[in-house]
Write a structure and sequence with these properties.
The chain has about 375 residues and is α/β, with parallel strands linked by helices. Among the domains are: about 180 residues, NAD(P)-binding Rossmann-like Domain (Rossmann fold, 3-Layer(aba) Sandwich), CATH 3.40.50; about 70 residues, ACT domain (Alpha-Beta Plaits). The chain contains 13 helices and 12 strands. Strands 3-2-1-4-5-6-7-8 form an 8-stranded mixed beta sheet, sandwiched between helices. Strands 10-11-9-12 form a 4-stranded antiparallel beta sheet, with helices on one face. Helix 3 packs across helix 4, helix 6 crosses helix 10 and helix 10 packs antiparallel against helix 11. GO terms for molecular function: NAD+ binding; prephenate dehydrogenase (NAD+) activity; prephenate dehydrogenase (NADP+) activity. Keywords: Amino-acid biosynthesis, Aromatic amino acid biosynthesis, NAD, Oxidoreductase, Tyrosine biosynthesis. One of its GO terms (biological process) is tyrosine biosynthetic process.
Amino acid sequence: MNEPASRVHSTVRSRVHGTVHIVGAGLLGSSIGLGLRERDVDVTLEDLSPTSLALAADYGAGRVRAAEDPHPAIVVVATPPDVTADTVERMLATYPSAVVTDVASVKLAPYLELVRRGVDLTNYVGSHPMAGRERGGAIMARADLFTARPWVICRDGETPAEALALVEAVALDLGAVLLEMTPEEHDRSVGLVSHLPQVVSSLLAAQLIPATEQAIGLAGGGLRDTTRIASSDPELWVQILGANREPVIALLESFATDIERFTEALRAVDEPGSKRKLADLLSSGMRGVGRIPGKHGTSERFVTVTVLIDDKPGELGRLLTELGELGINMEDLRLEHSPGAQIGFAEIAILPEVADRAVTDLAARGWRTL
């Protein structure tokens, strides 16, 4: 019998030498374990919840740590933000020869708390992989969760080279792209690209609660795009936002100012200058989107061709096969279903210079495009 995919080990050698101990068997901790186990790294697990611990072990993220196990080379703390500092301090005391890193999404608050307590941070290196999913837990973990995703390393001038190298080795083993920031830079950055979008998405989705079923039935891709992350765990986000409140508050205040300006212009839309104010604010959004890195981190932009496909087995596969036969490289793909109809929409991102040919050639093969 073949082993489950999560337990099939890679022939690629790991950069990590020694045992990796993971504290916290949720999505990130279990995904780190799965990725390292694919490289035959010895991974031990620890979690306050026996059920979470057993699930992570069953899925192949590592084995439950035993009292007789030797001290690990590195400890990865993957606990909720409100106990990160406590756990880091405990791990540094329990395994004084090990390097300790944490993967919490806020870096400054835990670091300042550890400094306040007078903890020796020589062997501590804060880090944060910019990866995740809307739903957590070991059951949602993936070995490739960090592939090609940024992994921020926060070091200070006293960090030993060997400690830094070990944390970097874990990130590189998991296929991540290393970035170096100070804790302050990190928290300001994630406040903008992660924490503010979460708040905006959640508050927007909350507006749907009193809506009628008829109104909800009109929902399309725009609403789904802007509310996708609103299904994230509220308890976890209360911790994250509370720990990073100062950057997030500043961003929310700036956002609120723009909303107020937009509302005032819309309220007086027939007065001179109001339409220009609306256009300027909307255009600033276009410029902002233009700054988001495209495929492979480049600034390259794509156009979208929407193909109507019958909602039956094999149709999507046939479309993708024919795109390959036509020599059209699909840069991205999104699927949307039509409520109440047995049809779907495949939104295919392609290079602008092949868009016209793609529409013509697909039509010649019987595909309908929008």
